[in-house]
Design brief:
The chain is an alpha/beta fold. It has one domain (2-284): Alpha-Beta Barrel (TIM Barrel), CATH 3.20.20.70. It is 36% helix and 15% strand. It contains ten helices and twelve strands. An eight-stranded mixed β-sheet has the order 7-6-5-4-2-9-10-11. Strands 1-3 form a two-stranded parallel sheet. The protein has a two-stranded antiparallel ribbon with strand order 8-12. Helix 1 packs antiparallel against helix 2 (25-36) and helix 3 (77-89) packs parallel to helix 4. The chain is globular and about 45 Å long. 37% of the residues are buried.
Length: 289
């Protein structure tokens, strides 16, 4: 129960209070708290979806390993939508549904994807994460502005090709909620080699990591312990059996809920064997290859 409280309950309440629009949020958070305590409840604090591995930057220290993709790809929107619908059909709420890449505005079927999930009754907040190198057209911005619970998160790395001022001006013009996250430094995750860490070390690092609470990632029909884990498996660096939940595997609603709750409270992640975040080494954000 302590692990469930740390991984699901606390992050769900935090995200609700931080990102969900509306009045009487205090009373809403109390109601959500009691919903979370139900034995069969399934609520996602933060679900990250990666429909594309194409990126407009080549960050030397990219945590999600996008420069390692020799053949980046766009996932078919119909399959991504099907996976999201499967998840939402077995959940009570998704506090925040996040789309990122790569660079999300390089995804050619983004309009189709957003139309499929906009104003979904189980999604409390819809978010796009961008590096602001690509400015979407007015038709998309008008669509996105019409969604009451939508926002855009802009990562500012200080790279010359980023168009932060132009992008934020467009958001203001269209009435789109946005936030700019200025990153001067990142934490070095290192390369893709296996560090050979033992279970106690993996447990310690995973339970201290932000990603164990806010970064479960949907990619290619599976939910992964974090976005880096999704890329590590996609690139063939690890098998991912321990670090993934197969959304497409046939299950009853009861089985789906029970197994995914268990997945959210895993003691450790194998992906930590391939990551140096635990060393807490600061590096320049957005340095290009």
């Amino acid at each position: 129960m302590a692990s469930y409280f740390k991984r699901v309950v606390r992050p769900s309440i935090r995200n609700y209070l931080t990102y969900v629009e509306g009045k009487n949020k205090f009373f809403g958070s109390i109601k959500l708290f009691f919903e979370l305590l139900k034995p069969d409840a399934l609520i996602y604090p933060d679900m990250v979806c990666v429909p594309t591995t194409y990126c407009s930057l080549r960050c030397k220290y990219c945590n999600n390993l996008m420069p390692c993709y020799e053949k980046p790809y766009h996932a078919p929107a119909d399959q991504v939508i099907s996976d999201i619908n499967t998840l939402l059909s077995h959940t009570d709420h998704c506090i925040k549904l996040v789309f990122l890449g790569g660079e999300i505005f390089l995804y050619p079927e983004l309009t189709k994807l957003i139309n499929a999930v906009k104003n979904h009754p189980k999604v409390m907040c819809l978010s796009l994460v961008t590096n602001a190198t690509v400015i979407p057209d007015d038709a998309f911005l008008d669509l996105y502005a019409s969604i009451s619970n939508a926002r855009i998160s802009i990562s500012d790395y200080g790279v010359s090709t980023q168009k932060i001022e132009e992008f934020t001006a467009k958001c203001r013009e269209k009435g789109i909620r946005y936030q700019v996250n200025v990153d001067k430094s990142w934490r070095d995750a290192g390369g893709t080699e296996n560090r050979g860490k033992d279970i106690p070390q993996l447990t310690k690092e995973y339970n201290e990591c932000f990603s164990s609470r806010y970064c479960h990632t949907l990619q290619n029909g599976k939910i992964f312990t974090c976005a880096r884990a999704a890329s590590l498996v996609d690139l063939g660096c690890m098998d991912g059996e321990h670090d993934s939940f197969d959304v497409r595997k046939p299950r009853s609603d009861k089985e789906f809920r029970r197994e995914l709750r268990e997945f959210f409270t895993l003691d450790y992640a194998d992906a930590c064997k391939y990551c140096d975040h635990g060393k807490k080494i600061a590096i320049p954000a957005g340095e290009q290859l």
